[in-house]
Design goal:
The structure holds 2 protein chains of 2 kinds. In chain A, 65% of the residues lie in helices and 0% in strands. Chain A contains 9 helices and no strands. In chain A, α3 runs antiparallel to α6. Chain B has 15 helices and no strands. In chain B, α1 packs antiparallel against α14 and α6 packs across α8. Chain B is flat and about 85 Å long. The two termini of chain B are 15 Å apart. Classes of the chains: A mainly alpha, B mainly alpha. The interface between A and B is large, with 53 and 67 residues.
């Protein structure tokens, strides 16, 4: 059973990916610059200004041991962005590789890989990730691998579908007639032609990986303090919601900003890349 | 039809077995194994652990352990919680109602919102209303569920004091509806936002088809055309999307229940994670996976029932 992406139809408002790209670039720029130009270090404790609300000297307030929250939020954004990009790229590469091999070679490999995709799609991902992270206490690198292991299925399906379509076309036959090996046909001739839909999927994966990381960290199971990530800054924010609401607002606002930006990029790109899908 | 359903069921079995192997392997690969909870307890001596391992059969070969676990699980014997010694089935059953209530409400609210907003957008393609709905949809998809929950708590419970912050009812057992509002809205928002696009795309396609034009030519009112003729046709491909989102909905429920301290299977899962209660964890993961497989199966069956062509073509393909 395959899930068709919502086909763009009749007069749907079209967005250019530029708006989302701008938002994303701005977030990345702030994440890179704020920790550098800020007069505070992200781990600088100032016990004389504990739990200060947002004001002229601390734009996003301070936390329970007086660290400048704005600086921490953007350092956290840096880590969350890095995890999101790394996870999405790794999952897309893995999915593209496995999916295109399945589509090209067919047979037992195809059947086995697609059963694995079905199986992984039938497991509620977040509960499993919660259990795994609680059990194995992953480092940031392992966290990226974990998320990758549960995010490669969609790129794999897309790559497989594209390869099944492309491998019947004359240029593939020509490449094969010239003696190109299977991996060469896939890597040089098929995948570049399948790049459009894969890039759209990758853009949307960035957002999904960032949300996964932030949920795990919010539960205290992902990125561990003292390293700030947008998720673990929210860990404990719920308890002080009534007294220090800014601790809950700013990290979440930044997650929303980044995820919205990548979704807008994916959405804008898909207008160009997507062929019209016939309705059922 | 019965043969079709039976065929789908048989094909779901290997999937369930695969999932059970994965879950079993996961818990047994854990450092410390299933008895981790006792390792950190200073009152439990090493010889007690050995005795427990013999008693629970943890010293037997892995494949034997797996077989006895999976056959016991299939017959409803889910073992006992390592934390309080009560039967796992009992602990899950007392929480299942909460999860069903939350997921059911969120599902209904999200579907209703998606149909209403999606229709508003599809009726006048390219209008300001369409653009607004599309913006709402993409913003809703991008909102992290757990943070939306925090913000709703902040606004409606802390600042405005209109609704309770957490839990499923007051100490007196009253106020269940008021307690349901915020968690259900939190959980529903993402799904409403993502389903809007499917409703809009499908309905806009349907509205431009010949039978709608024919209906209009015969003088049917626009409202009747929409509700009686177009929507049923447009919503039917949505069955697949809804059922595939069931897995995500369960994941969303885990987060939402945790944020709102809602007594359901999701918050039980997170509690059990913190306490290393592996027997409960394995059972919840299995229940969640079985529910996902069954909902996908249900979608196939409903789809085949609504559209006989699917039934026939899939039989030929099988």
């Amino acid at each position: 059973m395959k899930r068709a992406s919502p086909s763009r139809s009749i007069g749907e408002p079209r967005r250019s990916p530029k708006g989302g790209g701008g938002l994303l670039a701005l977030a990345a720029l702030l994440a890179a610059l704020v920790p550098v130009v800020s007069p505070y270090r992200y781990d600088e404790i100032d016990l004389s200004s504990i739990k200060a609300p947002p004001g002229p000297s601390h734009w996003m307030g301070t936390d329970e041991i007086g660290r400048d929250f704005g600086t921490r939020v953007f350092v956290g954004a840096r880590l969350s962005l890095a995890i999101g990009l790394a996870g999405a790229i790794a999952a897309s590469l893995l999915g593209a590789g496995l999916g295109s091999a399945a589509g090209y070679f067919g047979g037992l490999l195809d059947a086995a890989l697609m059963r694995l995709v079905d199986l992984q799609l039938s497991i509620p991902v977040l509960p499993v990730l919660i259990v795994i992270s609680a059990v194995f206490r992953p480092t940031v690198a392992v966290l990226v691998l974990l998320v990758t292991a549960f995010a490669w299925m969609e790129p794999a399906r897309i790559a497989r579908g594209e390869v099944l379509r492309l491998k019947e076309l004359p240029f593939t036959e020509a490449a094969k007639a010239l003696g190109a090996s299977g991996p060469r046909v896939i890597g040089w001739h098929l995948l570049p032609n399948a790049a459009g839909p894969l890039i759209v999927a990758a853009a949307i994966l960035v957002g999904r990986v960032i949300v996964m990381e932030s949920v795990l960290s919010f539960l205290g199971l992902g990125v561990q303090p003292p390293d700030p990530s947008l998720g673990n800054l929210l860990y404990g924010a719920q308890a002080s919601l009534a007294t220090e609401p800014w601790l809950a607002i700013f990290p979440g606002l930044l997650i929303f900003w980044i995820v919205l930006a990548v979704n807008l990029v994916g959405d804008g790109l898909s207008v160009r890349g997507r062929r019209e899908i016939p309705s059922a | 039809m019965a043969a079709y359903v039976a065929g789908r069921l048989v094909r779901a079995l290997p999937l369930l077995l695969g999932i059970s192997i994965l879950i079993f392997a996961l818990v047994h690969a854990a450092p410390g194994g299933p008895l981790t909870v006792y390792l950190s307890n200073p009152n439990v001596r090493p010889e007690d652990i050995e005795r427990l391992e013999r008693l629970l059969g943890l010293d037997r070969p892995l494949h034997e352990q797996y077989l006895s676990w999976v056959s016991a699980f299939a017959t409803g014997d889910w073992g006992f919680s390592y934390v309080d010694g009560r039967p796992v089935l009992e602990r899950i059953l007392e929480r299942a109602g909460g999860t069903f209530e939350l997921m059911g409400t969120a599902f209904a609210v999200a579907l209703l919102a998606a149909v209403v907003l999606g229709s508003l957008a599809a009726v006048r393609p390219g209008s300001a209303c369409d653009a607004l709905v599309s913006t709402v949809s993409i913003a809703g998809i991008s909102l992290p569920t757990f943070w939306l929950g925090l913000v709703l708590q902040l606004v409606f419970a802390v600042e405005l004091r209109l609704l309770p912050t957490a839990g499923r009812m007051d100490v007196t057992g009253e106020g269940r509806l008021a307690h349901l509002v915020l968690p259900a809205a939190t959980l529903a928002s993402f799904y409403a936002a993502s389903w809007i696009r499917y409703v809009r795309a499908s309905l806009a396609g349907t509205l431009s088809r010949d039978f709608v034009r024919a209906g209009r030519a015969r003088g049917l009112s626009e409202a009747r055309l929409l509700v009686r003729h177009s929507l049923p046709n447009a919503l039917f491909p949505l069955v697949t999307v809804l059922s595939l989102d069931f897995a995500l909905l369960f994941s969303g429920a885990v987060v939402t229940e945790t944020v709102f301290a809602w007594p359901g299977m999701g918050s039980l899962l997170v509690d059990s994670v913190y306490r290393r209660d592996y027997s409960v964890l394995m059972a919840i993961l299995m229940v969640g996976s079985v529910a996902v497989v069954l909902s996908n199966l249900g979608a196939d069956v409903v789809y085949g029932w609504l559209d006989p062509r699917v039934r026939v073509s899939r039989k030929e393909a099988a």
